Structures are given as structure tokens and as C-alpha cells.
Amino acid sequence: MQVSVTLWGNLRRFAPLGVGRAVTQVADDATIEDLVAELGAEHEVYAAALNGKVVALSTRLSPDDRVALFDHLHGG
Length: 76
Fold this sequence. Notes:
By secondary structure, the protein is mainly beta. Helices cover 11% and strands 34% of the residues. It has one domain (2-71): Roll (Ubiquitin-like (UB roll)). β3 and β4 (53-55) form a beta hairpin. The longest helix has 8 residues, at 32-39.
């Protein structure tokens, strides 16, 4: 199935061509955690939002979902 993913901050380096947004194919029973693994960002993602709401990484995806992935925030 197809989902849209937005990568924030340093996570952009895991996106195709370094662009912060992409549409990608995942398995029909995929979770956000599976998506993160496919991107190779397993140890980099701190939080995720699904269709505008913060959710656990174990949340199952549905066709045309919008996923936002966030890295650890650093302050100064």
C-alpha cells in the first residue's frame, strides 16, 4: 500500500534524494516501526504522528495515511 511520509530535522537524510517528503510503498500489514526500518532510521526516530495525531510506533498503517517522523530535539 502507499503512504506519505514527512521526515523532520536530521531525519531528512533518510528520505529519497534528501527531500523531507516522499510517497512510499509498504506491506499491507505494516506498522510505523516497519516503515522506519525500511528507511534505515531505527535508532533515529523519537516520535511519530499519523494523520496529524501523535501515535505509538507500533501503530498499523492504512492506505494513503500521512506519517510524520521526528528526531530527538536538541536545545541550546
